[in-house]
Amino acid sequence: MQQTGSTLGPVRRQMHWLVPILAAVLWTISWQHISLQQEVGESYFFAEDDPAFVEAERIKAIFPSRPVLVINAATSRIRSPEYIQRVAALTDALAANPQILNVRSITSGPQDIDDAIDSPLWRRVLIPDQFDSTNIFAVVEPNDKRDNTRLMAEVDALVARLEQPDFKLRVAGAPYIVEQVRKFLTRDFHVFSGAAALIFGAIILLLFRSPKLLFGSLTCCGIAVMATLLMQSALNIPLGLLTTNTVTVVFVLTASHIVFMTFNWRHIARDETLPDYAAAARNRTFMASFWCMLTTLLGFATLLLVDAKPLRALGICGAIGTAASLISAYALYPMYLRWTDPRPRPRAPDSAVNRFWRRPLLLPATLFALACVALGVGLPQVQTDPSLLDYFRQGSEIRNRLTFADQHGGSAPLQFVVRRDVGGELNDSEAYERLWFAHRALEEDPAVGTVVSLPLLMAEADRHPLSMFMTWEWLLQILESDRYGGAARGFVTDDRRLTRFTLAMIESERDESRSVIIDRLEDILARHGFETVYIGEAYFLQAELADRVGESLITGLAGLMAALAIIALIVGRSPRVILGLLFCLTLVPLVIIGGDGLLGVPLDIISSPSANVCIGLAIDMMIHLVVAMRVARRQTDNPWQAWVLARQDQWHAVAGAALVVTAGFSIFALSQFPPTQRFGISVAVGTAVAAVASLLVLPLIAAWRPRDVRALEAPERSGAGDGHPVDEQRG
Predict the structure, then answer these.
(1) Average confidence (pLDDT) over 271-298
(2) What's the rounded Cα separation, in Å, for the pair 634 and 513?
(3) For residues 307 and 310, what is the distance between their CA atoms, to the nearest angstrom?
């Protein structure tokens, strides 16, 4: 059955060729104006006016510091001449790099290995307790991201050149971690983009068996993606931990609209004679898709309520992509439907599938709902403050390096800026003793790896033979001089009232939240007479971020469910339908978040928005089913029969959309970055749950009554069953 009647006109029938031209124009603009550089760092996670970020920046203003690269050199004999020569060669090579300002190792700082072992400072900083390795610290000049990428490439090449079987080198430190994450995100962006096109293309071809519709679907999805990226670039939102996933998310949203529209197009062509089947399919699907777009947009908009900067960025980009997907699907894709023969299949009078959906399926629906609710017991066990190591794949080189560094002195930096609780200066014997006791108490905490502080520097200076004739103030002035690299300036202010404790925290054995540990360390300082003024560095910022992830789960989901309740009221128009929609939507976070809690899967900053995103996608299928039920309700007085007809009409579209979404987000399993994998798998699982809940649970809650079921089964037992599905959706 062709839809190329004379009423369409030859120009309108050929308008689909304008779509690839538009795609080419957008591609050209995108190539020139969109930066694919991934942004990772403290400034990406927090806004400039965020209290946590401001507090961390104040520490840098008081005690200027630069990024530090740490290289651990492991051996069986740290005193051997061969080992010391290799450390010296590595130290000299690092010092020769113009981006490295200063290097400290057992050959650059202490007089020799014995002096390093005897020194209270160098022993703690350079030689881990196991005595099977030493550390090399390189202070890096903080330039732009490209300089950091080049520096890390040079360091990797240097490590590969100098490493020997008995000289194992492991790189750590903030510059190295940032570069590794940037590499993961860049790889994911390119892999996801290509995989999305291949997988969606295969699914569209499987569902519709039409090269024309395949070409049209991919073109419309690509236009929506490029439009979103251009808007994202115009708003100065860089690609980062979460916004890298924008391509796949927008692809999925656009393809979902296309699936429902195409199935309706074929239904209309099978049962009606119209001059323009594409326009009819667009009009009959649009209102349901509009409400779905609105709910998905609300899902992303709730992320704007969270203080975490990456979640807000995803919320903005997701909202833009949601609108772009609807516009692209409904403004452009119908042109390809006009270009294509719908090839409708003959209607089966009463197929086995129709008879299947006529059954209430009470037992499987009940068992499914109970299983989903049971997973909710895992909600209190959700870990929203995962270890730094959980961001990297088990067994990967970077995780092995970080684990080794973590077990040999700690891997996550933390800083406390303190003052005496009674006031006064920090340059007398009483202050020194209090600081030294506080230092040792911090070292004894099981969560602390290494501590560097003012009393440690003073103890090092006190080793000098003439120190017994000097006051503490004289020693401080000597340590502030250029001869000693101004070491004391990094740990005490000029007025001698503020000092800094720098800690390296152990992550691999942590079973408490970072916030609890920080509070405990703050109490230790208070017990020794010091008031904490500022707290900073990555460990503190990660604690703040973890707290906000937990808050986002509550505020974001609560706000989203409240908004969806209003939309359910508008769409459902029945208390039972509204109850069914809200109950089925609630199953999604119960499975995703509760399942994570039971399985011990961490819920980090990247995977945390999966529930919000999935709920927005899940209601898509439910609204299309509700709209089909409302149309069927005009044809029957039996509420259950209306839901049966809606299921018979929409099950293949629901299944197709679920296949698109689950396959699309399953692409994230290809990532080498575990948080991205967890995000994709969570959304894929949640979408599958939503599809089953839509077809099994929602109709039972909304309309099931035994007498209505018996009334529907009576004609079937008498041989007069009618399996005709509903073929219209009117908003």
Answers:
(1) 82
(2) 56
(3) 9
Nearest CA among 527, 523, 522, 494 for reference residue 426: 494
Contacts 24+ apart (CB under 8 A), 344-352: 344/1, 344/266, 344/267, 344/269, 344/270, 345/266, 345/270, 346/270, 347/270, 347/271, 347/724, 348/723, 349/723, 350/721, 350/722, 350/723, 351/723
> CB under 8 Å to 275, separation ≥6 — which residues?
3, 5, 7, 8
Amino acid letter at 627?
Answer: V
Confidence of residue 447 (pLDDT cuts 50, 70, 90): very high
Distances (CA, A) of 288 to 267, 625, 652: 16, 9, 16
What's the CA gap between 547 and 468, in Å, rounded? Answer: 48
Residues 722/699, Cβ–Cβ less than 8 Å: no
At position 629, the amino acid (one-letter code) is: M
Question: How is residue 475 written in tokens?
Answer: 């020693």
- Which token pair is 726? 């509903």
CA 41 to each of CA 410, 413, 546, 683: distance values in angstroms, whole numbers, following the listed order: 20, 14, 16, 26
Helix (H, G, I), strand (E, B) or coil at 173: strand
Higher pLDDT, 163 or 707: 163
Query: d(Cα 301, Cα 311) in Å, to the nearest integer?
Result: 10
What is the spatial distance between Cα 338 and Cα 653, in angstroms, rounded to a whole number? 20
CA within 13 Å, CB half, 485: 12
Are the C-beta atoms of 302 and 560 separated by less than 8 Å?
Answer: yes
Mean pLDDT within 463-483? 69
What's the length of the chain?
731
Distance CA 30, CA 35 (A): 9
Dihedral class, residue 307 (left if φ above 0, else alpha if ψ from -120 to 50, else beta): alpha
Confidence at residue 11, expressed as pLDDT on a 0 to 100 scale:
54
Q: Could you tell me the domains of the chain?
A: 13-35+181-381+544-715 (1.20.1640.10), 76-164 (no CATH), 397-536 (no CATH)
CA angle 129, 134, 135 (to 5 degrees): 110
